[in-house]
């Protein structure tokens, strides 16, 4: 089990962030204002872009000791020695990923329902993503929205650290924490916001407030 | 330098082939009828599909001693222990790829002009793709077509084995061989043809005829 602080998990979207340079700057600001882990997710980008982006993010995040997680592309994670990877149900299976990355990198897996939650290989995966918890415009191929009753059931059933994802913004994070999730993941609630520093601080404040 | 017989290089397109199962069968038929190397290229597919497809292709091609080359996704090549990888100018750079795959896997690199040809790192790359040599409808983001005069110049300048690609079909392969290329790569000239066995045999015959 590789530990990861899921409290405020920023998933970077290069389009929402306004391109590579702005995305890296958003990551830096978020890391300085409460983001505890940052994922790069860019399904429409080619690998050379990915490499440049991941290297630039690592240069900014390593000194701040914020782990960089690479979505889907294990080759990019290996190339830049990222802290970990995150895969979905249509990506490489956890057993294959774990073989490629070795025992000491963080491995996250997306789940959308009780069946997928029950199928998670607990010895291989470090944390699960659970969502979408709210409607989202960011991920076009997202699964059906999980209602709050079902989300609470999933939180009672889970045995791994979990981060909620999908349409979470200021004002909607607290109920998820109350339901038992370890952290919340956001995309548009920070990426592309006029004041990403304030957005990150307010989200962190809401999460820590709901925990106490 | 990892040797590879580029004579008749089939690039599989799952859509043109009619899906995964038909694609694997096309690969088998092509391998039995003259294809010397086979690449899987599927930019629109998710990684779990890639894994399944690459494993199925390896199961068919390994007994026939036909190398399987994986386009772009080094993680898939590592996961299935493919014979090699092929990357384009927007994919991971050869130096990064070579570090990930080690010294004993085939590494191919696409080039489209004299500048790219001159920039190929000769100690890292095993062969180059050169194209498009003819107009093609298969690769929507292809570079401008290389005229035959320029292609012949590139062939005189090259110092690595080269395979021509782009719109090659029966009747248009011979001039490329005459110009000095080591082999030809085809997609639609085999994938989705009514008789892929005959198509492969005829292409091979044209290539070997032009060599003599």
TrEMBL record, chains A, B:
<feature type="binding site">
    <location>
        <begin position="136"/>
        <end position="138"/>
    </location>
    <ligand>
        <name>2-[(2R,5Z)-2-carboxy-4-methylthiazol-5(2H)-ylidene]ethyl phosphate</name>
    </ligand>
</feature>
<feature type="binding site">
    <location>
        <position position="72"/>
    </location>
    <ligand>
        <name>Mg(2+)</name>
    </ligand>
</feature>
<dbReference type="InterPro" id="IPR036206">
    <property type="entry name" value="ThiamineP_synth_sf"/>
</dbReference>
<dbReference type="InterPro" id="IPR022998">
    <property type="entry name" value="ThiamineP_synth_TenI"/>
</dbReference>
<feature type="domain" description="Thiamine phosphate synthase/TenI">
    <location>
        <begin position="8"/>
        <end position="190"/>
    </location>
</feature>
<feature type="binding site">
    <location>
        <position position="91"/>
    </location>
    <ligand>
        <name>Mg(2+)</name>
    </ligand>
</feature>
<keyword id="KW-0784">Thiamine biosynthesis</keyword>
<feature type="binding site">
    <location>
        <position position="167"/>
    </location>
    <ligand>
        <name>2-[(2R,5Z)-2-carboxy-4-methylthiazol-5(2H)-ylidene]ethyl phosphate</name>
    </ligand>
</feature>
<dbReference type="InterPro" id="IPR034291">
    <property type="entry name" value="TMP_synthase"/>
</dbReference>
<feature type="binding site">
    <location>
        <begin position="187"/>
        <end position="188"/>
    </location>
    <ligand>
        <name>2-[(2R,5Z)-2-carboxy-4-methylthiazol-5(2H)-ylidene]ethyl phosphate</name>
    </ligand>
</feature>
<comment type="similarity">
    <text>Belongs to the thiamine-phosphate synthase family.</text>
</comment>
<feature type="binding site">
    <location>
        <position position="139"/>
    </location>
    <ligand>
        <name>4-amino-2-methyl-5-(diphosphooxymethyl)pyrimidine</name>
    </ligand>
</feature>
<dbReference type="InterPro" id="IPR013785">
    <property type="entry name" value="Aldolase_TIM"/>
</dbReference>
<feature type="binding site">
    <location>
        <position position="71"/>
    </location>
    <ligand>
        <name>4-amino-2-methyl-5-(diphosphooxymethyl)pyrimidine</name>
    </ligand>
</feature>
<keyword id="KW-0460">Magnesium</keyword>
<protein>
    <recommendedName>
        <fullName>Thiamine-phosphate synthase</fullName>
        <ecNumber>2.5.1.3</ecNumber>
    </recommendedName>
</protein>
<keyword id="KW-0808">Transferase</keyword>
<feature type="binding site">
    <location>
        <position position="110"/>
    </location>
    <ligand>
        <name>4-amino-2-methyl-5-(diphosphooxymethyl)pyrimidine</name>
    </ligand>
</feature>
<comment type="function">
    <text>Condenses 4-methyl-5-(beta-hydroxyethyl)thiazole monophosphate (THZ-P) and 2-methyl-4-amino-5-hydroxymethyl pyrimidine pyrophosphate (HMP-PP) to form thiamine monophosphate (TMP).</text>
</comment>
<keyword id="KW-0479">Metal-binding</keyword>
<dbReference type="Pfam" id="PF02581">
    <property type="entry name" value="TMP-TENI"/>
</dbReference>
<comment type="pathway">
    <text>Cofactor biosynthesis; thiamine diphosphate biosynthesis; thiamine phosphate from 4-amino-2-methyl-5-diphosphomethylpyrimidine and 4-methyl-5-(2-phosphoethyl)-thiazole: step 1/1.</text>
</comment>
